[in-house]
Structure formats: structure tokens, C-alpha cells
Write a structure and sequence with these properties.
With 346 residues, this protein is α+β, with helices and mostly antiparallel strands. It is 29% helix and 11% strand. Strands 1, 2, 3, 4, 5 and 6 form a six-stranded antiparallel β-sheet that branches. Helix 1 runs parallel beside helix 6, helix 7 packs across helix 9 and helix 8 runs antiparallel to helix 9. The protein starts with a helix and ends in a 27-residue tail after the last helix.
């Protein structure tokens, strides 16, 4: 799939071998919204920056470590936390004003793209510290239910199509995986503050509700439960951002999602010569495991040339395939692109 080119290139690089989880960077592929008190919407991407910095293994090191202990990353994390060496990440955000959504040579709602930090700086806003190991691995780890639909006031969704699909699928997955619709009441998934969502019954219910009604309006429980009334500090129940749209809703992929290679080229050009050699070796090795030769040829002659001709030539020589000119040039020339740096709002 050409859409995977950027992501696959990252996995072929040294980024695929974190030396330690404390050296592992995290950034979401989705674009969300931030909503301020006045109801103004801005686009946002979230980042985790390791306080210890990024650091990777090379292939030979990884082979030796994983061969002796496939769980060495997790074991090192566990032992470090146990010995008082906590793991730390800074939480950062990239904020883009709605008026600047189309100021880039790519679609910021495309989950295969990232926003270069040279264009939109990552602003640190918090920190996560892992300083305690689970007391019970199953109860505190295996039953964790992640769901991007669970948001707090001030955060809302964008029209990122993959995010929209996950808003449905993750809830459906957790209901099936954890035995029913009340998985959010399992201790590890419970909110840390009091909550009332008016849900009743079904499997594995752990909250005992009083009264007879779970709906509003009603006349048998004094009108309760009721939504949080609007006030100066609260606006009642969740209300999505009122986005004005003047377009046709169609079942089709946007043309702005058609660039599959330019950010892969950007990543390739950011690598040192040694790192590039590692990527060439990784593609050579992984493609040697592909059983169907025409698929191997397609990657070498149709995908890799769109990233970089030298990458395609070197990998092709290792597999006996002659290089070929790109079958589809990137939609944008990143080397010639003229961007303005988007400064974060105060």
C-alpha cells in the first residue's frame, strides 16, 4: 500500500530499536481540536518527548539482546522503576489555527503525515512520570481500555477520517474484549473523579444506582438524573464544536490525501549516512523474506524510487533488480517548498 510508505520507512530505520522505553518518543497520528472558553477551535497534535532523549540500538545489538531476552525493554523499565529511576516524558502540543489549516503542502488531517517541528514548534504543557510498577499485572495492565472517544472538556474531534473510524471501532472492540458495555467500571478504567452517565444494567455492572429512572424528563424521581445545568464554569453536557461546512458529503478519498512519498523523502533526507546504510540493510533483509518475487520487485521499482533513487538503486542491486525512474513523483517538491513558520498562540 503506497499510503504506508512513510510509516514503513520509520520502521526500517533505527527508530524501530529503542534502547530503552525511556528513550522512546511518542506522537499521535491524529489531529484533534482544542476548544477554548469562547468556543474558538484550533487544530492540535499531541507529542510525548522523552526527558532522557531519544536513543536507539543498531541491528546487531538488537539481535543479540532480543535473542537472549525478548522482553529486555520491558524488564529494564520494570527494574529501573523498582530501583527508583523513574521514566519521564514531557507532554507537548502543536497548535494550528483554523485559518492556517491549508497553509501546508499536505493535509494536516491525513494520518500518514506529521507536521514538521520547524514549521509548528512543539510547546511543552505537562509531564508524565512512571514511578510505580503494577501491583497486579492483569488487573492494572491487561484490562486497560483505550478509547479515543473518551475526551475531557476543551478537546474535540476533527474530520480526520481514520480518527472518525476509531471513534466507533475502539468502543466496539473494548465491549467485546472486556465482556460488555460496563468495561469503564473496571477499577483500572474508572474515572478518578465522581461521574454520572445515567447508564444502567447490562453485563458486569459495578455501580448500584438508586431510583427508578435513568432518563430525563421524568416524573417519578423528581426529574433526576439531569444534565449538569449551564453556569459560568460549566456548559452542561458535552457539546461538540459547531463547525460550519459547505460541501458535498461523498464516499471518496480526498485528493489532498494523494501524496504518499514526500514526507518519506523528508525523513530519508534527515538521516545521517550511517543511518541511511542501516535503512538500506533493513529493506534488503526484510524484502528477502518476501516469498512472491513480483511483490518484491514492485517495492523496489515502484515504491522506493519515489522515496529516493539511491535507496532504490542500492536495495535493487542487492536483490538483482535494475533501478527504475519513479513511477509517480511526489505531489510536492519538499526541497523547493516555501513555508512560513506557524507560531503557537499565546
Amino acid at each position: 500500500m503506497p499510503e504506508t510508505t512513510h510509516t514503513v520507512l520509520w520502521t526500517m530505520s533505527d527508530r524501530a530499536f529503542p534502547r530503552h522505553f525511556r528513550n522512546m518518543e511518542g506522537f499521535g497520528v491524529h489531529t484533534f481540536r482544542l476548544i477554548d472558553r469562547e468556543g474558538t477551535s484550533r487544530f492540535v497534535k499531541f507529542h510525548w518527548k522523552p526527558v532522557a532523549g531519544t536513543c536507539s540500538l543498531i541491528w546487531d545489538e538488537a539481535q543479540k539482546l532480543w535473542g537472549r531476552d525478548p522482553d529486555f525493554n520491558r524488564r529494564m523499565m520494570w527494574d529501573d522503576i523498582k530501583n527508583g529511576a523513574a521514566l519521564e516524558w514531557e507532554l507537548g502540543i502543536q497548535v494550528v489555527e483554523e485559518k492556517d489549516e491549508h497553509s501546508f503542502d499536505f493535509d494536516i488531517l491525513d494520518p500518514t503525515k506529521l507536521i514538521p517541528e520547524s514549521l509548528v514548534p512543539v510547546v511543552p504543557i505537562g509531564k508524565m512520570v512512571l514511578d510505580r510498577n503494577p501491583d497486579n499485572f492483569f488487573a492494572e495492565t491487561e484490562q486497560v481500555a483505550f478509547n479515543p472517544a473518551n475526551i475531557v472538556p476543551g478537546i474535540d474531534f476533527s474530520n480526520d477520517p481514520l480518527l472518525q473510524g476509531r471513534l466507533f471501532s475502539y468502543l466496539d472492540t473494548q465491549m467485546l474484549r472486556l465482556g460488555g458495555p460496563n468495561f469503564h467500571e473496571i477499577p483500572i478504567n474508572q474515572p478518578v473523579c465522581p461521574f454520572h452517565n445515567n447508564q444502567r444494567d447490562a453485563q458486569h455492572r459495578q455501580t448500584i444506582n438508586t431510583g427508578q429512572a435513568s432518563y430525563e424528563p421524568n416524573s417519578i424521581d423528581g426529574g433526576w438524573p439531569s444534565e449538569t445545568p449551564p453556569s459560568d464554569d460549566a456548559h452542561g453536557g458535552f457539546e461538540p464544536h459547531h463547525e460550519r461546512i459547505e460541501a458535498h458529503k461523498v464516499r471518496a478519498r480526498s485528493e489532498s490525501f494523494g501524496d504518499h512519498y514526500s514526507q518519506a523523502t523528508l525523513f530519508w533526507n534527515s538521516q545521517t549516512d550511517v543511518e541511511k546504510e542501516h535503512i538500506i540493510a533493513a529493506y534488503t533483509f526484510e524484502l528477502s523474506k518476501v516469498e512472491r518475487p513480483w511483490i518484491r520487485e514492485r517495492v523496489i521499482t515502484e515504491i522506493l524510487p519515489n522515496i529516493d533513487l539511491e535507496l532504490a538503486r542500492r536495495v535493487g542491486e542487492n536483490h538483482g533488480w535494475p533501478p527504475r525512474q519513479p513511477s509517480r513523483r511526489p505531489r510536492v517538491s519538499w526541497a523547493a517548498a516555501r513555508w512560513k513558520v506557524i507560531q503557537p498562540s499565546a
